[in-house]
Amino acid sequence: MTLTHAIQALGNDRxxxxxxxxxxxxxxxxxxxxGDLVKDGVCGLxxxxxxxxxxxxxxxxxxxxxxxxxVTSKRTKKWTFYKRNxxxxxxxxxxxxxxx
Length: 100
What we know:
- By secondary structure, this protein is an alpha+beta fold.
- The chain has 6 helices and 3 strands.
- Strands 1-3-2 form a 3-stranded antiparallel sheet.
- Strand 2 and strand 3 form a beta hairpin.
- The longest helix is centred in the middle third of the chain and has 14 residues.
């Protein structure tokens, strides 16, 4: 993760929305069959549906967020679950505030 990747990831409203939803997944997403929303993360398909975009489009957004360190992914069966990487988010916040 670099600061450049982090800033690029934050430069898109849809990615910011995903991060906001992942703060409180039980509030924004329905229960999942194969994973706990908080413990395992949110299925990429549910994120795509909520954003009203295709699965490939949301996969690209999640790839950018993952590369920046904002989210982690976990594969279970045929699903990929995503959740916020809070320690990395805090580190990025510190790095940005030291630069400003």
